[in-house]
Design a protein that fits this description.
The chain is of the alpha/beta class. The chain is built from 10 helices and 6 strands. The protein has helices at 14-19, 29-36, 81-87, 103-113, 131-140, 157-164, 177-180, 195-206, 213-227, 229-240; strands spanning 66-71, 94-99, 120-126, 145-148, 169-172, 186-189. Strands 3-2-1-4-5-6 form a 6-stranded parallel sheet, with helices on both faces. α3 packs across α8. The relative contact order is 0.16.
């Protein structure tokens, strides 16, 4: 989609490809707006969210140690190391769990996490073999907040899944993230954030009404209205038909 992410700063054969297709369907409104602005067959461009399935709301126990979760591969654009820089400024007991990533790629992150202060506990699941394992993890563990600090994104399925379990999100305002992280589902931060500032946001979240079952129910309702697959797929099927 984005020219600046391609070698040479442009997308080869875009006009040719769009000319010979019936529809161009990006998975976010942000991406669609970007493509429409290029004025290359703009009438063919229609955004549709991918959506996720309903596995119920996740457990929540506010009395437990505050628990932060992240999910995804380890790569430069995911900037997982910045989560560690944020956690260095947290002054209350916190457990951080990172789901996913091959252990070999996690080595550097695991080493850095060992330098965190004693009030921070870190856990790494490594790569999960199936989506069912991910679902089980969310169904069996209480997480107060999901974090994503990527430098670039489309519209992350990982965030859509987190809010489906009612988990609020703090995430960088990149790509289509602001479509899934709103005041109804969490907190947006600027891409070039200061780790100390994000740590302060997490502390404020911890002591706010957002860290409550009432807010989590509303987060899940926001997901249901906008990102539940059974709401989205029939309309998408109708478009294709």
């Amino acid at each position: 989609i984005y020219d600046e992410r391609q070698l040479g700063g442009y997308m080869p054969f875009r006009k040719f490809n769009y000319e010979h297709t019936s529809k161009v369907i990006p998975n976010s409104i942000t991406s669609a707006d970007y493509l429409i602005a290029k004025n290359i067959f703009p009438d063919k461009i229609v955004p549709y969210y991918l959506g996720t399935r309903d596995f119920g709301i996740g457990p929540f126990n506010k009395k437990e140690t505050f628990s932060l979760v992240s999910c995804g591969r380890i790569s430069p654009e995911k900037r997982t190391h910045l989560i560690i820089e944020i956690l260095q400024h947290i002054d209350f007991p916190l457990i951080w769990t990172h789901i996913g990533g091959k252990i070999s790629n996690l080595d550097s992150i695991i080493s850095q996490s060992k330098l965190l202060p004693s009030n921070i506990e870190s856990k790494f699941t490594g790569y999960l073999e199936s989506h069912n394992e991910l679902v089980d993890y969310y169904q069996e563990n209480s997480f107060n907040l999901f974090i994503n600090v990527s430098s670039t994104e489309g519209l992350p399925v990982s965030i859509q899944e987190a809010i489906s379990f009612g988990i609020p999100v703090i995430a960088t305002k990149v790509g289509g993230v602001e479509e899934v992280v709103t005041e109804e589902s969490g907190i947006l931060v600027e891409p070039n954030f200061e780790p100390k500032e994000v740590a302060s946001m997490i502390k404020l979240f911890k002591d706010s009404d957002m860290n409550s079952i009432v807010y989590r129910i509303n987060v899940r309702e926001f997901w249901r209205r906008n990102f539940e697959s059974k709401q989205i797929y029939p309309k998408f099927h109708e478009l294709i038909s």
